[in-house]
Amino acid sequence: MIEPKAFVEKAVAKLRSVEGRAVAAVSGGIDSTTAAILAYRALRERLTPVMIDTGFMRKGEVNSVSTALRPLIPIRVIDARKDFISQLYGKSDAEEKRKTFRELFYRKLGEVVKEVGATHLVQGTIAADWVETAGGIKTQHNVLLQLGLDPKELYGFSVVEPLVELYKDEVRAVARYLGVPEELVRRQPFPGPGLLVRVLGTISEEKLELCREANYLTENYLADLNFSQYFAVVFEAEGELRDGVKFYRVRATGVKGDNRVYGKIVSIGWNHKDLESVRQLVMKLSAGDVTHVMIKVAEGKGKYAIGIRAVTTDDFMTADFAKIPEERLMELGEALASIPQVGEVLYDVTSKPPATIELE
Ligand code: XMP
């Protein structure tokens, strides 16, 4: 564990050596917020902190985050929803979606960099991001240098990553030291590409809006349980039943050894709620090509499945699925199933490995 005071002094001194102007990309997550505050300490009016509204943020998030950050940094919101939506609707391959998102995201930042006459981009990449990308587990949207991409050539700026050696709990310690309000420090992580990675399969407006609503309900219902991360995903409920196990068409990511794999999502009936039998079933299925096992919690009349995902973890490199109390799970299931487009509500009971935390 690093010593926050010494870390901050060193990081600020290093950031001061950045010449000219810089732009900081802030999502409202603790990593990018901490990186931007450090940079603001070092550069003051030479820094332009921006939040890009991609259209894939959670309900009300752009407003609430920018309001919470204004006392700390002079954040500017850039509305890029049209660009993201027009390029991403209709796309279905998970890696292609991530890559398209990354390209649009950095192109947009490149425009801001040019507009304010900057040369550098400050971002909150942390160790876990590049460790997992380098391991081939997934292409994190914010990893450029480590993938051999040259941001200067591609987008016209050099990247500065003051937190690149830190893990999440260290970032939180630094944030507290910097006086970031506790509600931001404790915020659960939200992936850079946002709800994009929570709409499985083809992106459409209907699925995205359903995903936003399902995430809103799920976060509100589970907030007081203090899990490390909890959210909802949306996918088509079509699938095929084999020996009491439903295999869905859409695929989801998992990890095997050091590699990221695409596997099947399956669901089983509520009679499997005994955790030991679930554990054995997950082991058996994940030996094949299943990456996420879910239990059916509630049924509705629509065509989409909602997967409730909640995990506990220290470092996000491995994670246990969270044991949501049965009553709470049922209540949330019924609330989600009452949305007209929802056909089934499922509860993901897979740990990482063999699953990933997100499903894409
Ligand atoms: P996985 O799904 O790989 O997630 O087990 C580990 C942690 O990383 C977050 N995550 C991302 N964060 N950009 C980010 O900034 C991304 O592209 C991205 N993908 C996953 C995920 O929410 C979890 O906390």
From TrEMBL:
Ligand binding (ATP): 27-33
Reactions accelerated catalytically: XMP + L-glutamine + ATP + H2O = GMP + L-glutamate + AMP + diphosphate + 2 H(+)
EC number: 6.3.5.2
Entry-linked InterPro entries: GMP_synth_C (IPR001674), GMPS_ATP_PPase_dom (IPR025777), Rossmann-like_a/b/a_fold (IPR014729)
UniProt KW Nucleotide-binding keyword: yes
Pathway assigned to this chain's UniProt record: Purine metabolism; GMP biosynthesis; GMP from XMP (L-Gln route): step 1/1
PROSITE patterns attached to this UniProt entry: GMPS_ATP_PPASE
A cellular component term, taken from the record's GO annotations: cytosol
A GO term for molecular function: GMP synthase activity
A family per Pfam: GMP_synt_C
CDD domains noted in UniProt: GMP_synthase_C
KW Nucleotide-binding (keyword) present: yes
UniProt keywords, alphabetically: ATP-binding, GMP biosynthesis, Ligase, Nucleotide-binding, Purine biosynthesis
Every GMPS ATP-PPase domain range: 1-187
Alphabetized PANTHER family for the sequence: GMP SYNTHASE [GLUTAMINE-HYDROLYZING], GMP SYNTHASE-RELATED
Function comment: Catalyzes the synthesis of GMP from XMP.
Name of the featured protein: GMP synthase (glutamine-hydrolyzing)
Organism per entry: Sulfodiicoccus acidiphilus
Taxonomy of the source species: Archaea, Thermoproteota, Thermoprotei, Sulfolobales, Sulfolobaceae
